[in-house]
């Protein structure tokens, strides 16, 4: 209904202003629903708990609605927020959420350009997210992962006093989150606002939701503030979302430490059936799991039942009368609770340029983005052989003295196919867009509009049969770790869709990944897959292993 003005109320899922004027614009709510919510006694405030149609579709049906939203708009919202005048006498702390699968992070070097030079940030704490998806290729792999993230920060100009810390976490499974909360409360306390920044799909909104249910926010916040909408579709968050940060007084820190000590003495056998069920679910999702608890939970008063005898009494000739259910009154913060509050903000993800995800449909994105623990797939190739990762990437082994090992780290849903150089073009022409290669999907019509694969020649020298020399990162579709005999020189040709980034990552992220494999499958280039066990932090049973 174009005649109805915008509400001035933000969607509680993505932050866009709710409106019913334009179905293709952010914050759209169908006019009938919009009017039923806004025409009550509360007026526009009746929309306060509502979500827009886009968030509703994402949350309940996993479908993304197309929006006329230029990628630059996400960057403008973030930059405008970071250039606000400092509150409480100091600039904000930036919590930069980095997807470890995407190293080197394409946006990290651009971070200084988003800030106001006259209002410098108090520092940047980098959070390496999604570590639960990566298998441990050797003892101490997390220490090595952290070193890789620190090196990426230094390369982007983040070092010294500007870099507060680097933490490795899984916002999804909770691994490392209690340590992150303790670090924030110990170093930043409640000194100023905190902004979650990062690229699309880095896991900012998932981290925002986890922190909202942790000791980092005020105890009443989960009852007042709705969770952010989370989906695999890039750019879900459209505007700022926020919750108030709790003041970590000495008493609160002491009580929190006591809770953490008590929980650390538990074993899996001492967990309740519900806790075990949840833990088993998380173990299936990732290799690294942690529990995020709450020390400061507000005790809810028992609800008072309204008893209306007239509503319950009726004669034998009457049907029972169903009175309309009263809408529960939404809790709100009082003025005193938030007048001096420091806030944690979730910001829109910055769109990655030259990213294959920008070329994909919603269904294809779900196939490409890994959501569960990645199982490495290793193949041994001779010169003249080719490896396909779906129809999104290809690696040709052109020259070399001996066979080499190619380990694929990508979504378990993406197929990997090995063929000969002489058959590779025919296989791509026949099966791209079809079930055999899966992504892209949609047949010949889809492939007519999809960019062609373009090559890049790569020369590598082997360093041994157990250690990869480099990763060939096929944009955001995944990567191939190459392991070759000592001093063996390899000439490879890698392909990605035109307009997407192909990166040779040296040193590799998981250098010993080729050793995480089973026996060779007879008559093929493939090895049987092997899934390492999951690890649960802060449980005594795991500490003994």
From TrEMBL:
What top-level branch of life does the organism fall under?
Eukaryota
The record's InterPro entries line, in alphabetical order, gives:
GTP-bd, Mito_transl_resp_regulator, NOA1/YqeH-like_C, P-loop_NTPase
> G domain location, by residue?
194-244
Record keywords, A-Z: Coiled coil
Coiled coil location = 250-277
Q: Give start and end of each NOA1/YqeH-like C-terminal domain.
A: 406-506
Q: Name it.
A: NOA1 protein
Task: Tell me the lineage of the source organism.
Answer: Eukaryota, Metazoa, Chordata, Craniata, Vertebrata
Protein's gene: Noa1
């Amino acid at each position: 209904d174009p005649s109805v003005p915008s509400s001035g109320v933000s969607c509680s899922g993505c932050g866009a202003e709710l409106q019913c004027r334009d179905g293709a614009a952010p914050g759209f709510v169908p006019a009938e629903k919009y009017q039923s919510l806004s025409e009550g006694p509360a007026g526009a405030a009746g929309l306060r708990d509502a979500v827009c149609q886009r968030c509703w579709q994402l949350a309940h049906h996993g479908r993304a609605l197309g929006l006329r939203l230029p990628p630059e708009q996400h960057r403008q919202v973030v930059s405008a927020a970071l250039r606000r005048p400092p509150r409480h006498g100091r600039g904000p702390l930036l919590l930069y959420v980095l997807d470890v699968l995407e190293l080197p992070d394409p946006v990290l070097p651009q971070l200084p350009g988003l800030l106001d030079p006259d209002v410098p940030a108090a520092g940047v704490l980098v959070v390496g997210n999604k570590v639960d998806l990566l298998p441990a290729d050797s003892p101490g792999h997390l220490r090595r992962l952290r070193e890789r993230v620190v090196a990426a920060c230094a390369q982007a100009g983040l070092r010294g006093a500007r870099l507060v810390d680097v933490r490795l976490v899984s916002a999804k499974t909770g691994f490392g989150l209690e340590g992150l909360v303790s670090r924030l409360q110990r170093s930043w306390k409640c000194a100023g606002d905190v902004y979650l920044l990062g690229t699309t799909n880095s896991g900012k909104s998932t981290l925002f939701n986890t922190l909202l249910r942790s000791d980092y926010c005020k105890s009443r916040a989960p009852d007042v503030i709705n969770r952010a909408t989370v989906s695999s579709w890039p750019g879900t968050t459209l505007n700022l979302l926020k919750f108030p940060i709790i003041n970590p007084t000495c008493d609160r820190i002491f009580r929190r430490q006591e809770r953490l000590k008590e929980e650390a003495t538990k074993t899996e056998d001492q967990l309740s059936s519900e806790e075990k069920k949840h833990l088993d679910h998380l173990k299936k999702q990732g290799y690294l799991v942690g529990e995020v608890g709450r020390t400061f939970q507000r005790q809810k008063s028992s609800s008072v039942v309204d008893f209306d005898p007239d509503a319950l009494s009726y004669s034998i000739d009457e049907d029972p009368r169903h009175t309309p259910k009263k809408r529960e009154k939404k809790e709100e913060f009082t003025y005193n609770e938030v007048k001096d509050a420091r806030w944690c903000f979730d910001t829109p993800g910055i769109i990655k340029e030259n990213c294959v995800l920008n070329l994909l449909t919603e269904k294809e994105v779900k196939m490409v983005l890994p959501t569960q623990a990645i199982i490495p797939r290793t193949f041994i190739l001779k010169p003249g052989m080719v490896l396909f990762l779906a129809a999104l990437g290809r690696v040709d082994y052109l020259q070399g003295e001996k066979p080499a090992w190619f380990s694929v780290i990508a979504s378990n849903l993406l197929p990997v196919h090995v063929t000969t150089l002489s058959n590779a073009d025919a296989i791509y022409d026949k099966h791209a867009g079809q079930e055999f290669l899966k992504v892209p999907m949609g047949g010949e019509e889809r492939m007519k509009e999809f960019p062609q694969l373009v090559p890049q020649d790569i020369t590598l020298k082997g360093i041994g049969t157990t250690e990869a020399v480099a990763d060939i990162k096929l944009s955001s579709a995944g990567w191939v770790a190459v392991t070759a005999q000592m001093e063996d020189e390899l000439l490879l040709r890698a392909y990605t869709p035109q307009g997407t980034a192909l990166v040779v990552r040296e040193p590799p992220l998981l250098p010993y990944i080729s050793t995480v494999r089973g026996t060779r499958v007879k008559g093929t280039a493939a090895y049987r897959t092997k899934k390492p066990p999951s690890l649960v932090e802060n449980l005594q049973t795991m500490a003994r292993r």
